[in-house]
Design a protein that fits this description.
With 392 residues, the chain is of the alpha/beta class. It is 33% helix and 24% strand. The protein binds cytidine-5'-triphosphate (CTP).
Length: 392
């Protein structure tokens, strides 16, 4: 972050104290920080604390700016390389989405011509409220990077998504935002990852052993190369890679819906281990005394094949194939059958499922490449690089 200037807008929430740690971390990495406190923010941290940590004057009111004759608020918003809103409260996000400018913070946000990154923190119900969902969607469409909040216990005692991401994660997102544009800058890429769960009854599901690690690593590597990544994830216990927009789903049908709603995309990498079959779930818990249930199996839609024939087919369509026998031959047949451009064939006969390494072959129209066994992150970087070349 050497020499990079961050304008930090601190909103009024209990997580505001973490903004102090953020100032410290940015400065430690060579960046400089100019802080603006909203009236709410000033209820949680004092201007003095932020001034001491940033070693710069802290601004709280539109009317304090000395150089209003020179349009001080415009200057303040433009002299930065990046504007960071942390914590971004539901109120601030709503004002930003609506384009309101009724105090210094919102005026700066409307006047800036610099990239904006918002780290939300609020009660779980506020985060999930239809109005907040709408505002976040609007802001993302306007080009604002809105980070996903963390999930966990909240200051109010409730549990769920809404906690401010850890300052280290916010710093990683800032670095990504400030990084010179990568090979995939501005390209929208869709990734699916993890298993799907098909319900049998309200307490039982049909699942598989996919950990989601490879798909999450690919989403992260694509984002690191500058892509605008939508990750549709089945039920997994992994944190969202920096810079990735994540949509959580449970079933194959939900995954298909989420994928189609995320179109158009320039490329799609379908890594998810989608359940091939589903059953009509019983409305109440099946009882043992009634004997083994007769599950009426039905085939799930094939998301990959569906995308191949879609009117908005991504320019590059990449499938995965987890195989235990005749790995390459099966993958070649699968590529033709599903109508995708590449298949990354996984030999899952060993400890690949859930493990940290992967052993793959890249099957394309030009032939087969055998890649050395490597950590899943390394495979992800290599694939992101190849995707960058293919879309160039
Ligand atoms: N796939 C999908 N939708 C499905 C099944 C699979 O999108 N309903 C995708 C996977 O994400 C993967 C590719 O298709 O990219 C291959 O998945 P795989 O399970 O290996 O293929 P199947 O068609 O299920 O073939 P089989 O089980 O016969 O090997």
């Amino acid at each position: 972050m050497n020499g990079k200037r961050i304008l930090l807008i601190v909103g009024g929430g209990i997580a505001a104290y973490k903004a102090c740690e953020l100032v410290r971390l940015i400065r430690k990495q060579g960046g400089s920080v100019r802080c603006v406190l909203t009236a709410g923010g000033a209820q949680f941290v004092t201007p003095m604390t932020l001034a001491a940590l940033s070693e710069q004057q802290v601004h709280t009111s539109l009317w304090d700016l000395k150089d209003e004759a020179e349009m001080g608020h415009i200057q303040l918003s433009r002299e930065a390389d990046l504007v960071v809103v942390c914590p971004a409260t539901a109120d601030l996000l709503a004002k930003m989405a609506a384009g309101l400018a009724d105090d210094l913070a919102t005026t700066l946000l409307l006047a800036t011509d610099k990239p904006v990154l918002a780290a939300p923190a609020m009660n779980v119900r506020m985060w999930r409220h239809a109005a907040t969902r709408r505002n976040v969607e609007r802001l993302r469409a306007d080009g604002v990077t809105v980070l996903e909040p963390d999930e966990g216990e909240m200051a109010c005692g409730e549990y769920g998504p809404g906690r401010l991401p850890e300052p280290e994660a916010i710093v990683a997102a800032i670095r990504l935002k400030l990084a010179p544009a990568g090979k995939l800058a501005g390209r929208h890429i869709l990734v699916t990852a993890g298993p799907t769960h098909e319900a049998i009854d309200p307490v039982r599901v049909i699942a598989n052993r996919s950990s989601g690690k490879q798909g999450f690593a690919i989403a992260g590597a694509l984002a690191a190369a500058g892509a605008d990544v939508t990750l549709v994830a089945g039920p997994v216990n992994l944190s969202t890679p920096t810079g990735v927009t994540r949509i959580d789903v449970e079933t194959a049908a939900q995954m298909k819906d989420a994928v189609e709603r995320a179109l158009p995309a320039e490329a799609a990498v379908l890594v998810a281990a989608v359940a091939d079959w589903t059953v009509e779930p019983a409305g109440s818990k099946l009882k043992k005394r009634d004997g083994p249930p007769k599950l009426g199996w039905a085939e799930n839609p094939d998301i990959l094949a569906g995308l191949a024939g879609h009117s908005k087919r991504p320019r590059l369509l990449v499938g995965f194939a987890a195989e235990t026998d005749d790995v390459v031959a099966s993958a070649e047949a699968k590529r033709a059958r599903k109508g995708c451009d590449w298949i990354v064939a996984n030999d899952v006969s060993g400890d690949v499922m859930g493990g940290d390494d992967n052993s793959v072959h890249l099957v394309t129209a030009d032939g087969v490449e055998h890649w050395e066994r490597a950590p899943k992150e390394e495979i992800a970087r290599r694939l992101a690089d190849r995707i960058g070349d293919a879309l160039a």
